[in-house]
Design brief:
Blueprint lengths: L2 E12 L2 E12 L3 E5 L6 H8 L7 E6 L2 E2 L5 H7 L1 E3 L12 H14 L13 H11 L15 H13 L5 E5 L7 H15 L3 E5 L3 H5 L4 E6 L2 E6 L1 H5 L2 H7 L8
Parallel strand pairs: 3-8, 3-9, 6-7, 7-8
Antiparallel strand pairs: 1-2, 1-4, 4-5, 9-10
The structure holds adenosine-5'-triphosphate.
Length: about 250
């Protein structure tokens, strides 16, 4: 297995409360890995730790062999890791094109000062390419707030793509979507997965079964299963923790 990222004994506490403990896993290059678990399982905490929003309290996280613990979050994009946020990250009054351009500009102003100015020149093209990748080029002049919910989520992903990440972290990409928008988002993730590693956090088991190469299941901050969708789906402990939860497990 070629791991692009490996986490070893990662934990995170808030005061005396242990939200995440002893997580050890490897993320294979160019695969889709999903992290699932019931409410309060620690998914968001894990996601925030992997994307540099939260520092882990314990353990180590290596990306392409490099230790991430202690790195500032803005360094993550330059190392090749980008994440999507919920739609509150968009500028609602700006156009679709302006939203990705602002993202490109933010990346540029944070670039290492040692980088040559010429390398900044490609950022506007990257912004346009990101819009094309998520199928939003035709909406470029529309204000973000006037987009459909699914399109706003796609724009959120385009913003993450501006950095041209090798590892794309998606935070509940189908949250709040109906079946049609969910289908389109799954198709988009499949397209994006052809060229990069994807790690997504999801609440709905059903949605990720067909999409993921591998699934990690968290429960009470612990990793209780790690395997193929088929293996995880038939895992007795996973079935037990999901029992009675209305999350589309079946
Ligand atoms: N900043 C914080 N301070 C204190 N406790 C926190 C903090 N963030 C998360 N927690 C706690 O850690 C646990 C895990 O929360 P987390 O949000 O990671 O779970 P989750 O699996 O994403 O849940 P959900 O599916 O409901 O979003 C919860 O008990 C939560 O209350």
């Amino acid at each position: 297995m070629t791991a692009i990222m490996s986490v070893k004994d990662v934990g995170r506490s808030f005061g005396g409360f242990v939200a995440l403990a002893g997580i050890t896993a490897e993320f294979e290059r160019n695969k889709v890995t999903a992290v699932i678990g019931p409410n309060g399982a620690g998914k968001s905490t894990f996601f925030n730790v992997l994307s540099g929003v939260l520092a882990p309290s314990t353990g180590s996280i290596r990306f392409k062999g490099q230790e991430l613990k202690g790195q500032k979050q803005h360094r993550f994009a330059h190392l090749g890791i980008a994440r999507s946020y919920q739609i509150t990250n968009l500028f609602p009054h700006l156009s679709v094109a302006e939203n990705v351009r602002v993202a490109a500009q933010a990346l540029r102003t944070r670039y290492d000062i040692l980088r040559h100015r010429e390398s900044y020149a490609e950022l506007p093209e990257k912004a346009e390419a990101a819009l094309a990748q998520v199928g939003l080029s035709h909406r470029r002049g529309r204000r973000a707030r006037d987009l459909a919910h699914g399109e706003q989520r796609a724009l959120e992903i385009a913003i993450a793509l501006v950095a041209d990440p090798e590892l794309l972290l998606l935070d509940e990409p189908t949250a709040g979507m109906g079946p049609e928008e969910t289908k389109e988002m799954v198709a988009l993730i499949e397209r994006l997965a052809a060229a990069r590693t994807i790690l997504l956090v999801e609440h709905k088991m059903k949605m990720i079964l067909g999409l993921s190469d591998r699934i990690l299941v968290l429960h009470h901050g612990r990793l209780i299963a790690d395997g193929t969708p088929a293996a995880v789906q038939s895992d007795p402990e996973v079935r037990r923790v999901y029992l009675g939860q209305n999350d589309g497990y079946a």
